[in-house]
Write a structure and sequence with these properties.
The protein is α+β, with helices and mostly antiparallel strands. β4 and β5 form a beta hairpin. α1 runs antiparallel to α7 and α2 runs antiparallel to α3. The longest helix has 38 residues. It is elongated and about 115 Å long.
């Protein structure tokens, strides 16, 4: 009976594990990005399947109401995932108040709670790379745009030079990515970082320039989509101490897929790209397995109390048996005590 109980427990545990996996997969599917056309098709299919057995029993008005309810429910579940949302923080490696990786991740979590996304800060543009380049070229003909004016106002001061190096030689010497957070352990990460080292090549190794970078992601070889604009920072000659790092958490709207990274470098106040670095230059920026956090749901085990009848019956039977033996022993002791004086007289 004990062996039967153990097998039942293993079987129930296996069933529970399958239920947990199905539950988590369902949550991931419900939180995935679905287009409006797909949502309509899915709801129509579900409503036809669910209402066909009861169509003959319900009035057409009730059937239509049920179909509309299903459609609205699914649309409400999928609407929050239509827009892309990301949270990024960048800093120069040479900054005196440089934050640690853990501090940066905590700062990103705080921004997620506040809803202070890159999109809300105009740090992430809903544009392709070609559109961003075209926009910058148009800004040149408008004198100075509000965005470039803001950047110049935030520009770090460089004391030893005031001239531009936009006609000089800029290069991105190195760039690499690091994968950081994958809650559901499916191999796709919601948090990652990109670090790059930009250099200014002139005759004077102490020359400095003020630059910023536009960062892009390409999903599975598709068009480059802008995801972050860095703050302005200073680079000096070919120094390796002025590298810049950007930590990002993809919060919404990024399918589980492989993404390439591209970095365009600009000198503040000028619209021309002065250096580019991408997955063509480094394998570290190629085919990063990424997904937004609405896909990266942490695995949760759903516990359910189970009862094994075989073990319960055997345990109950043993207790009853022990009680019977105890009662018999007690009865025998009483009988022995009752006849003990008679046995003494006979002896």
């Amino acid at each position: 009976m004990f062996s039967l109980s153990s097998s039942n427990l293993r079987f129930n545990g296996s069933k529970q594990r399958n239920k947990d996996l199905m539950m988590n997969n369902l949550l991931k599917q419900l939180s995935s990005r679905v287009t409006l056309n797909k949502a309509v098709k899915v709801t129509s299919h579900l409503s036809s399947k669910l209402t066909s057995p009861v169509t003959s029993r319900l009035s057409p008005i009730l059937v239509t109401s049920l179909q509309l309810s299903l459609m609205l429910t699914l649309l409400l579940m999928t609407l929050p995932s239509f827009a892309e949302q990301s949270y990024s923080i960048g800093q120069s490696a040479s900054a005196s108040n440089k934050l640690s990786a853990e501090q940066l991740r905590q700062a990103i979590k705080h921004r997620v709670i506040l809803g202070d996304s890159d999109q809300a800060q105009n740090k992430a543009l809903a544009s392709t790379r070609d559109e961003v380049i075209k926009q910058k070229n148009q800004q040149v003909h408008k004198n100075i745009s509000a965005r470039l004016f803001k950047k110049m106002a935030e520009t770090p001061k460089v004391n030893n030079t005031s001239r531009s190096f936009s006609d000089g030689t800029f290069v991105i010497y190195e760039g690499y990515a690091q994968l950081i957070a994958d809650l559901d352990l499916d191999g796709y990460y919601q948090t990652f970082s990109v670090t790059f080292d930009a250099d200014l090549i002139t005759y004077n190794p102490y020359d400095k320039a003020v630059v910023y970078a536009e960062l892009y992601l390409s999903e599975n070889g598709g068009p480059w989509q802008h995801y972050y604009t860095t703050d302005s920072f200073v680079i000096q000659g070919e120094s390796s101490e002025d590298a810049f790092e950007v930590y990002s958490t993809l919060s919404q709207g990024f399918n589980p897929n492989h993404y390439d990274v591209l970095i365009d470098l600009y000198e503040v106040g000028y619209a021309n790209i002065i250096a580019t670095y991408s997955s063509d230059d480094s394998n570290s920026l190629y085919a990063l397995p990424l997904e937004s956090s609405d896909y990266d749901i942490e695995y949760v085990e759903y516990y359910q109390e189970t009862h094994s009848h075989g073990g319960s019956v055997s345990l109950t039977g043993m207790m009853i048996l022990m009680m019977i033996l105890a009662m018999r022993q007690l009865s025998a002791q009483r009988k022995c005590c009752r006849y003990w004086p008679i046995q003494g007289l006979m002896t």
